Amino acid sequence: MSRRFGLGAFVIGMLAAVLAALVRATMPLADLAVPDADVLLAKGLSALAVLLITYGVYRFLMGVLVSRISDRRRAHDLRNVLRLVLGLVGLVGILGAFTEQWLGVLVSFGVIGFAVTFALQQPILSLIGWVYVVIKRPYVVGDRVTIANVSGDVAEVDFLVTTLWETGGGLTSNQPSGRTVTVPNSLVLSSEVVNHGALFDRIWTEVPIQASFETDIPFVRDLMLEVAEDEFGDEIRAAMERYQSRLDQSPLELNVPSGASVNIAQEESWVVFKLRVLVPPTAAQRARNRLYERILTRLAEHPDRVSFPVSRNR
What we know:
By secondary structure, this protein is of the alpha+beta class. The protein contains 8 helices and 8 strands. The mean pLDDT is 80.
């Protein structure tokens, strides 16, 4: 459908160009009282031809190239590049059709560019930031990121702004808040950008469980590891393989854990068991909920070996 629509616009644009040439050659409106009616008509038809041909090429390329890319993120980037390039070509073409001074239009763009640089510093920086995002890909559509203390899922990367579906915000859990946040692309050049899943599509998260000092510590540790293995064992091992593959391609030398682990810390009047597991960055809270439910249920089955703190200072 997109290719047919683009082909139709292209054909109509070519007809408009032919009509513009005929008007210039035959001067059919020479007898009208309107001064330069033939010239105005020819210029209008030429501008219409440029607009339709450019739009037709855009729709055709969208149908031929973009629609065949299975990766939606790369398709999104290619669409934006086509919009920018063909938009600039169309703008120059329309102005050239009206002025008939193609070189002058290009020179004017350069002169005007110097004049507006100071007035449009932020939009220009945002456009440069967009080019950086497209080339270096610090994030793409679908990633969960934090940009200048704003966290969310990347929904759109336009020429000047990145639109995030906010996570967290006023919520205590790191889940979607239902709000959208528009972040200028210039912040990518001046602020830190945290991509929560770019390394190997997983992040570490912790599930803390508090218990009293009378608790059988090895038993609780082993029970938590058993639950983690049942829930995410295969996923963690697969993620660790991807992580090791990334490490092999980098100059870093790090010890890669083989699976989930439990860190134990002493607090004021209790012991904290912190189960450390790998989860998808967009499903961390759901994973913690599942682990909490299963771990607490299992611990409640062993009151002789597990007890919880009752201090009011908890």
